From TrEMBL:
Lineage: superkingdom: Eukaryota
Protein name: S-protein homolog
UniProt keyword annotation of Signal present: yes
Transmembrane segments: none
Length: 144
């Protein structure tokens, strides 16, 4: 019986459960990507476990998703962006350190956000929803 319990515990700990979840053990994250460019673009968001697919964002539109970070703190999402004028690229849209450094909210309220603004001169990160403040944004990615 001890062996069966041990195997069951190992199965629970090693199961690759999806990070897109309805309930979290602690707080959940919501990540937003806003199009503040003068034209639409396509974005494809994925993690190791979840592919959120392709989305075309019109001017001032956003894509967002909610997820629970895994207990090891290794959850990571990245995005591929495709603009009509050949401004294309890939960036990490969420990992533990980026969330803690630039995100808002706390473990106590259970809701945390991270916001990305895609602009003509680069991609900015911050923690505010519209209306966007003028200050408080960090440009992490420049267009090539």
């Amino acid at each position: 019986m001890k062996t069966l319990n041990f195997l069951f515990l190992c199965l629970i700990l090693t199961t690759n459960a999806s990070s897109i979840a309805k309930t979290c053990r602690s707080s959940h994250w919501t990540v937003y990507i806003y199009n503040l460019m003068n034209e639409p673009f396509s974005v494809h968001v994925k993690s190791r476990d979840d592919d959120l697919g392709d989305h075309t964002l019109g001017v001032n539109e956003n894509e967002n998703w909610r997820f629970c970070e895994n207990i090891w703190g290794t959850t990571m999402f990245w995005a591929d962006i495709f603009c009509n004028d050949n401004r294309n690229g890939t960036w990490h849209v969420w990992d533990h350190s980026t969330g803690l450094k630039y995100g808002s909210g706390s473990l106590d309220d259970g809701q945390r956000i991270l916001v990305w603004l895609v602009k003509e001169d680069g991609i900015y990160v911050g923690n505010s929803l519209p209306p966007f403040p003028v200050d408080g944004w960090t440009r992490l990615y420049h267009w090539p």
